[in-house]
Structure formats: structure tokens, C-alpha cells
Amino acid sequence: MLLDFRASFNLHRDVLPWIVNQGPADNVERSSRTLRVVNVERNGRILYTWKGIENVTNIGLYDPQVEQNERLYSFEKNLHIISCSVNKEKSLLALSYFRSTGETLCEPLRPVAKYLTLLIEIQPINNVKVLKAVDSCIRVQFLYPVEDTHPFPESHLLVISEEKYIEQFHINVASEDGNRVVIKNSGQIPKDRVAEDFVWAQWDMAEQRLFYIVPKRSSCVLQCIQFYPEDNFNILLEVTLDISLGDQGVSLVNFGNDFYEERGMARSPSLSLQVFTNKTGGLCLFYTPPLKVEQEVNYLVAFLHKGCSKTFKVAKTDSNQIKRVSFINLDNYVAVYLPGHFLHLINTRHTDLMCYHLFLADEAARITGMCNDCPMQSLLEASVIEYCTGNLFSVSINQWLLLKFLWNCKLDCEKLAVLHCALLHLVQQAQGETQIIEWICENASSCHSFDPIQEFIIASLYRKVSLDTIHLDKLLPYTSVPFWNEVIDGVSCSTEIIDLPILKMKTFKGFWEKLHSELEYMKHAQHRFHYSNRMLRRDWCKLISEVDTDEKRSVLYQRNVLENGKKVILNMNTWNSDQRTVPLYQEEDYPQKDLMGLIMVKLKEHLLRHLLHIGKNKIDKIVLDYVSKQLDLICLILEIVWKKYNLGPCAFCFNGRGSPSEYFALHIMCRISEATNRMCMPLPPGFQTLHLLLGVRCLPLETFLHYIDTGVLQLTETFAAKLLKDMDDNDDDKNEKLKSSIILRLPELTRKYVIDKSPLYVDFLPLNYLIKMLSEVEDQALNPFEEDSIDAAFLEEFALKRTAALLGLQKS
User: 50, 70, 622, 687: which could join 683 in a potential S-S bond, CB 3.0 to 4.6 Å?
Assistant: First the structure.
């Protein structure tokens, strides 16, 4: 079970024992049978009803903060309560109920409304006022201020009628006799018409928003009203939807229990529509149209903040009756669940590639402990309720099961989707990263459509850096995969462009500011905002070329790049830690340092172009963290490999053959080098020298030299100096061949540097011969009476070639 369902509230566990203590023991069976949840308020309080002795109808409230129950009101008769809501101060109770046939027969001479809506003073129990007496079903919902600035004497109540209108009542209360609360304007309560002619409405209790859909010819218009504490409301959003809800009557979401389903009058168990938002400004509509093909399930996802929609079609594997699809909001994901068939985790943040949506079918999608005959209703984020059982669940993605599933994945699309999901939902970061890295090390060669090392580094950087600053997530890459052609078995998907929402406001705050940012980005999406390391390769090659040829375009620019590279190394956590076990040598790797500095310069220019609202110092810190954390992630991979295989912190010697563990470490370092090279990412200081040391121990000489010639291994000054100093000569001339081969492959400037750093005479014939000849050349250069002029560079090259020929490394 990939999703964790934890019962945060259970009627029979949290309420029934309290009810039993309130009344006679012979009433337990009736109370248990009639106990049901009616509504859940924004602060988490749960309203429920039950029938007591002599058909007394009770309304109770459970407060999860203190885990206590209280009776709010009782009726001395049997009522079927449809909807109920209590204000924040628990001074007013609003409810609507259905009048039974027996009750209406008592007054045969005048028409009696089927439904009554009451407003009751409950602190203490006082007056009861009839708000509505109609023949259509009514729902009630008190507004809860998002901020605590809402004045106590005023409450606002939404009344939702299935005659397709919504009104807001403004209720003022006054305190009398100490604690007696009465309604001040009980004669005629002021009200506003909020919406009308709608066919669907949804209450967002967390953010106090009302979404509703108004039909327009062959399409529909989705609108949203935001309620504010200062007693005003506005239509803030409007977008045209290319869907037709048909003649389904009025459908209401999150306005308490579904009256029609409870009475066995459900209009269509397969019809479901819900809107979800997330913290980053995402706005999505999920819709399941009425079934047309018995062997197929369709659901549409309109990513309104992205201006696109996807229609998924899932083949049904058996002929059992299809139940209603449930939607569960998990912030960055929405789970689409059909009991016994499939669980589809849809990534609402990155919608473009199918490989970010995790699809599970049959046994892998099974959720235990849930009532499969009762659809789940998503309330708050990561919270669902089963009204038929009275259970409220908090829902989360099980990180450990997700990682376990990662090890069992067979398809690349599953591996990539699980990898992204796991990185986004790391709860225990260190342990989670360790397991992911271990999986990458074991499965790096089994991923054919993407490089897991690249994906781990880029996705981890995105999570660590981009979420801290507004708009930054649109400027940094989140994946190394440019496109995806693979399909998911059993699922087809079609994508369409849709209208972007229109925001009807002048100023933005909270969610609306983030949504506005998303929409502005989509309006200019033709200009690619995401930074790409691949753009650096040409500039880096040019920079290295200028350094080697002394053709410097700007001393200031070169100095800026170098200083930025130094800052990155100083800002690294892993490399500078005393706890590290990987023997990364403290060395000056100038090409890599230049690349670090160049990335700093280019990324800073990129962010300064687009993040105009952020100061330069803040951008400097973002860029520094981004590059240094990328190097830290590479070090982290090495640390986990070293600890897993007990390689230890000791520096490697040149003698002896490498162990299987060292060979595995060499393989992983080759994969890291290949991944970073394709993305033009720098490597941490000491990486290439350590890579070479492992190569000497683990590879045959010919293979080792071939790896150098093809660029898999990069020669460094530190390695060359260590090789010439520490490697012993042996009888079979193998070490002499290695030393000579390395010297032949060193660039001219590096060669001179290494020789200057080496002892004057070492037990290595070719080098001794070279040093002797160069010394003679130097003596002649100091003799003013010497007529002939000798080219030292020519002699050096000649000596190396002659020595190589003598050793059989090349033809003379």
C-alpha cells in the first residue's frame, strides 16, 4: 500500500463511548446505528448526529484539539438532519433537515415545506429562527476567518440551495446577562446573493474559497469567490472549461454529507468533479465524466495554471461494476483511486512528461483498511473522509514503501516517477537519500531512458534550493530528461491546450500571488526560463583555451571566475567536513575550479535577468548554495559508497591489485564523471585524482591508458607527482612503463610543473635521463662563451620519445 491512511477520527472509537456514558444502556444499539458525521469545520471540529431514547435527535461536536465531545443541541423528535454548521465561537448553530411524511400530515389544510433551515442560539440554548422553509434541499456553512482579526459579534453564514443559488447571511449577536448570547438582528437578517445559476459548487474550507460552475451553451465557466475576514467577497477567478456536465442537477462538494447518496438517490455514482490547489500556486480540476464504454475508465485533469489538460483512459480488467473514482489531494500530487483497479499519482507541479505520473494497477494499487463501497471525499490537504463509515483519515505517501517499490520497479517510467516522488517527499532526509543512492549505485546501468545520477543531482538541487524563494522554481531545472516517448501499459493519454484563467483583481496575496506568477510564466513560456548547464560547454572550453594560450579576454573576468570558484569550495559542507571518509585530496584542480566559477557567473546573470524583486546579495547566496550543494551531492554519493563497502579513509597505494569493492567504487566514479560531463557540471576537488588512483589499482595498464586517452580518466598534477614519487620500480618494468606513459600524456605546462615538484633524482631511469639532459642545457645557457644555442623543449621531447622507444612503449 503506497499511501498511508491513518484514522485521525473514528465515530465508534472517539464518540460512541462518550454517548454510552450519557444515557441508558438499552439505547446503545440505536445510538450506534444512527450515529453519523454531518460536517467537518475548518478548525477540524467534527459535527455528528445520533438518535437517542424516544427518538430524540442529538447534535454533537468533537474537538480534536482537546479530544473531547459535547452536545450542542437536541430535538425532542425524530429528524433527518441534512446539513449542519457551527460558528467559530460555538454561539450559533445552523442546520437544515428533511421533514418526514408523518410530520407534514399533521397540517393537512396548508402546504408544508419539505425542508427547514434553522438558526439556533446555543450559548446557552435560546431562540430558534427559521431561515428557510422550502421544497428544495438546503446546505449551510459558516465562514471561518483565515485570520484572527475577525470581530466576535459578527458571523457569516452561507446558505446553498439546490434551486441553484447561494446566499450569505450576516448575523450580529450580543451578550446579555453575562454569558447569554442573542441575535441582534433576528427580525430581518441582512443577506447577499453570492452566486446563482450554477450546476456544481465546491467549498474550500482551508482557504475560505467558493468554486462554482455556470453552464454556457456547450461549455462551462468556472468561477471562484474568495471570502475575506473584513466582510467582503469578490469573484477573483474565471476560466472557460471545455466540458459539459449535462443534466445532472446540482452537485455539491465539501458541503457536508451527501444527502442523495445517503437516501439511495445518487444521480450517477461515476460522476465526480473536484478542484484542488497547492502551496506553489497550482490550480487543477479533476473530472470523471459519465461512463460511455463499460470496459474503460476516463478522467480528465485540467492543469489550469499550466494551460493544458490531459485525458486519461484506463482499460478495465474485469466485468465487475465500476465504483466512483476518488480524488485525494497530496499537495504536489493528486491520487486518482478506483478501488480494485488502479491508483494513479498525478504530479500537479510538473505536468509535461508522463514519466512523472506514477500509475499502479491491480494488487500494487490496493489500499487496505478502507471501505471499497464508499467513495472517499478529500477535505483538507492530505485528509479524506468516508461519510458512510464516519472515519476521517490523514493521508500521506509512505516513504519507505515508495523506496521499496523503487527497488522492484521494472520499467524506466516507473523508476523515474518513483525517484521524483521519493525526493519530493523525503521525511527523514538522510536515511532516504542513503537508500536512493544505494539504489542508484546498484541500478545505474539498468536505466536506459535516463541517467539516474543526473536525475538525482538535478531533482535534489531543485528540492533543496528552489522552494525557498518565490519564482525561483521556474528558473532552475528540475529534470535532465528533455522529452519522453515511452507509454504506460494499460493507460492512454491525450493532451490539449486550454484557456488560462483570468484573475479579476488588482493586488495579489497568498495563493493568488503564486497563481498569478504561474500564469505570467505560462504567458511567456515561449522564452525558455529554465537554466541549463549545457549552455556552459562552449564558454568553458573557450575559457580553458584562453588560459592555456594566455589570450585572456579580460583579466577582471578571469579573476571573477577564479574567485567564485574559491567561494564554492569554501562553501561545501562535505568536502570541508572532518567526518568524511572519502580520501579526496586537497588539491588545486584549475579546470574544475574554472568551471565552478563560470557556472556561478552564468547562473547569476540568468537569475538577475528574471528575479528583479530580489537583491543582488540574495541572488549571490542562492547561486553559491546551488553550485556548492551540487558538489556536496557528488561527495554524498561517494561517502555512502565508501561506508557501504568499508573502503575507509586511507589513501591508496600504487602497489597491489584493487579489491572488488574498489572496482565497484571505480565503476560508480566513472558513471558520475560521465553524468557530470554530459551536463557540464564540475566535480569536487580531489575527485579526478582519486579516480585515477582507483584506476591504477583496478585496471590493466592498457585499459588504464585507454581510459585516459578517451577522457574517462582525467590526468591531474597531484596524481602525476604522487605517481613519480610513491610508485616503486619492479623487475618487470611495469611501473616504469606506467610512469613513462603518464609523462608522455601530460600537457607541456603540467609536465614542467610536475618535474619541478619532484625530487632531483628518483629511482626512475627515464626521468633521471631527462633531468640530466635538461641540467646540461641549463649550464650551457648560463655560459656566455658557448656559441651553439640548444632548444630545451626539443631536448625534453626527444628524451621522452627516446626513452619510450627503449621501453618498447612506441616505435623509435
Answer: 687
